[in-house]
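Much of what follows relies on a compact textual record of a protein's fold. A record is reproduced here so that you can trace the correspondence yourselves:
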Amino acid sequence: MPKGYMISAHRSTANPEKATAYRALAIPALEAAGGKFLAAGGRVVAKENGRDERTILIEFDSFEAAVAAYESDAYKLALAALDGGADRDIRLFEGVE
């Protein structure tokens, strides 16, 4: 079964206070749902339509697990804490076998 992934590509710098509150809830929520952070921050080279902003990649055991993590009550609390404090492109996608 292919792995599932969540990628968060920021379009601009996030509100620092809201981002801190979000991370305090989001990281444990996603890890509790089986998420493994493969990349978070670091250097970015943006190509085509991309932007050189913060990018996070999280791996899950399956596509369904990635979707369930995003839709979980614990992660919804993290999104409420973020409350519009970031402009991001979030994608949940299936890997290859």
